[in-house]
Amino acid sequence: MEKRWGGVFRQTTAPSVERFTESISFDWRLYREDIAASMAHVQMLAQVGLLLPEEAERLKHALLEIEEEISRGQFPFRPELEDVHMHIEQALVERLGELGKKLHTARSRNDQVATDLRLWIRRGIDDIDRRLQELQRAFVERCEKDQGIIVPAYTHLRRAQPVLVAHMWLAYCERLQRDRERLADCRRRVNRCPLGSAAIAGTSLPIDRHMTARLLEFDGITENSIDATCDRDFVAEFVFDLALIAVHLSGWAEDWILWSSAEFDFLHLPDAFCTGSSIMPQKRNPDVLELVRGKCARVCGDLQSLLVLLKGLPLGYNRDLQEDKIPLFSAYDTVSDCLEMAAEIVRHAELNRQRLEASVGTGFVDATTLMEQLICRGIPQRDAHQVVGRLVRRAMDSGRTLGELTLDEFRQEIPAIGPEVYQWLGPAAAVAAMKSLGSTQPELVKQQVARWKVRLGLAPDEAGLSSAGKEEGSKTGRET
Ligand code: ARG
User: Fold this and answer.
1) Which residue(s) pair with 150 in the sheet?
2) Distance 109 CA to ligand 1 centre (A)
């Protein structure tokens, strides 16, 4: 078939080239954005007199019809039409004849695809943000369900100190909050309209770029037509943000894979979220968590693909850029699915309270607090460390906890000590003894839970907590 750009050509395109260069097989996903951008463009062309008002009406009507057909799956895609932009334009020409050919006035596919991508990513950011918030809510709701449960916190994957499990759930919320802030920051740079930059130099036609930007709800226009047509920083940035979310999810998945193993047995994953083995009848495998961990590789690979794609490209649009959509869609789809699964699992898994109690009662997780209490009594930290180390060794060698040592044994190491030493021992005492802001001290954790509930819209803001949240939000131009 005759190409829209075919005027200068003496030969028709080889079918192998059509197959090789097409992008409709993946960029059809931009059709809503492409049509939205065309609608705004048409309205602007009418406003500046490049289209008659009734021409604009007919074009918009046909564009909506095409959108409807694509969304119903009734629109045939043909590789010889290259990409989503050409498909929609061709359909307009088939419907409206000569008038359809006016749509591309003062526009190039270079600024068109840049606009579509920004619109698509803007929506993607909002969707991922919503899913991140859902996952945060799932963790915060767990804080209430798991109230008062103390678990060992690990460093080097060795039992370190006791913490409220809610403190751990809120640790994940903090990570996810930074992910949301990064997305909000990325959104500011995404939300600039490149439409009207045309191929590279702009256009000699009297267009109104501010008008299309406003109609498409962009915050403003891009400032340089050369940069605007080849800038894909915002794609790389978004995919980086997705990759870090995937990294965060993979860490959580690993935690819960361990916790749900028979060796830890801290957490029960419902059958609905496990799968079996085809040979070992007893197996209940945490495949969903393993895939959340594993799919992170794909997203990190997508980021790598994009960075390598952009490296060394000369200024101006290059066809290489067509390849940006494959890693973009892949990273978005993967992270979106993982977030959804994560929220479901967080809502449905059950902690094994008995087992946690037994586990946190051993392993000398109260040793650090004991040392700190000795420091309060004037013993230098280095000495207190040594003394408690020797007490732990004594208990360890005789198969006891620190709380099971006799007062005489304590006095051999710390002559001035009295029976008050027993008040400092055990996981609950160690947790309660915490004082520093941001620690696992139960009153502080309770305040944090309340703050998160307000922040996530799970509770009304009775104590005026959100003013603190707003300050943080305003740094990134976004409510939290
Ligand atoms: N399908 C192309 C892409 O995704 C659209 C832009 C093509 N522009 C061009 N002059 N060939 O990048």
Assistant:
1) 164
2) 6
- Sign of the Cα pseudo-torsion (21, 23, 24, 30, in order): negative
| Mutation to probe ligand 1, out of 23, 113, 229, 324 (largest number of atoms < 8 A from CB) | 113
Going by CA atoms, what residue is nearest to atom 4 of ligand 1? 322
Q: What are the distances in angstroms from CA 59 to CA 44, 193, 230? A: 12, 22, 28
Catalytic site residue from 156, 278, 436, 467: 156
Q: Choosing from 261, 277, 398, 474, which is the catalytic residue?
A: 277
Known active-site residue 156: yes
| pTM score, whole prediction | 0.92
Q: What is the CA radius of gyration of the chain?
A: 30
CB 60 within 8 A of CB 363: no
Atom 7 (ligand 1) nearest CA: 109
- Calculate the CA 395 to chain-centre distance: 46
Helices (H), 261-380: 287-310, 325-348, 353-360, 367-376
- Tokens of residue 267, six digits: 């957490």
8-state DSSP, 328:
H
- CA distances (Å), 110 to each of 21, 171, 202, 228, 295, in order? 16, 43, 11, 9, 32
Instruction: Name the residue with tokens 């006095």.
Output: 411
Shortest-distance Cα residue to atom 2 of ligand 1 = 322
Does residue 109's CB lie within 6 angstroms of at least one atom of ligand 1? yes
- Give the nearest ligand 1 atom to 23 CA: 1
SS3 104: coil
Name residue, tokens 């604009």: 56
Two structure tokens written together for 166:
């809610």
Ligand 1 centre to CA of 81 (Å) is 12
Do the beta carbons of residue 241 and residue 299 sit within 8 Å?
A: no
27: CA distance to ligand 1 center in Å? 10
DSSP state of 161: E
* pLDDT in single tens digits along all 480 residues of the chain: 777 777 888 788 899 999 999 999 999 999 999 999 999 999 999 999 999 999 999 999 999 999 999 999 999 999 889 999 999 999 999 999 999 999 999 999 999 999 999 999 999 999 999 999 999 999 999 999 999 999 999 999 999 999 999 999 999 999 999 999 999 999 999 999 999 999 999 999 999 999 999 999 999 999 999 999 999 999 999 999 999 999 999 999 999 999 999 999 999 999 888 888 787 888 889 999 999 999 999 999 999 999 999 999 999 999 999 999 999 999 999 999 999 999 999 999 999 999 999 998 888 989 999 999 999 999 999 999 999 999 999 999 999 999 999 999 999 999 989 999 999 999 999 999 999 999 999 999 999 999 999 999 999 988 776 665 444 444 444 443
DSSP β-bridge partners for residue 221: 193
